[in-house]
Write a structure and sequence with these properties.
By secondary structure, the chain is an all-alpha fold. The protein has one domain. It is built from four helices and no strands.
Length: 67
C-alpha cells in the first residue's frame, strides 16, 4: 500500500511487469501509460494535486501504520 500510486504504480503497472516477466514483453504499454499521459494534458495538470491529496487521504485512513 505504501508504494501504490493511482497514476504511477497501480494494478496496470503490476500486470505489465508480470507480462514482461512471463513472456518477455508488455504488449499494452498504452494502458500502462494512461495515467502519465493523462497528467500531460491540461485537465490532468489541473487534477493532479486533487488526485494526490485524495490518494494520500485514503492511504492514511485505510492503513493503521499511518495512524
Amino acid at each position: 500500500m505504501a508504494t501504490y500510486d493511482v497514476i504511477k504504480n497501480n494494478c496496470n503497472h503490476f500486470t505489465g511487469r508480470a507480462a514482461d516477466l512471463l513472456v518477455g514483453q508488455c504488449t499494452f504499454e498504452d494502458i500502462v501509460n494512461q495515467g502519465t499521459d493523462f497528467l500531460e494534458t491540461d485537465f490532468g495538470k489541473m487534477m493532479a494535486p486533487m488526485l494526490s491529496q485524495q490518494q494520500d487521504a485514503l492511504k492514511v485512513s485505510s492503513n493503521p501504520i499511518f495512524n
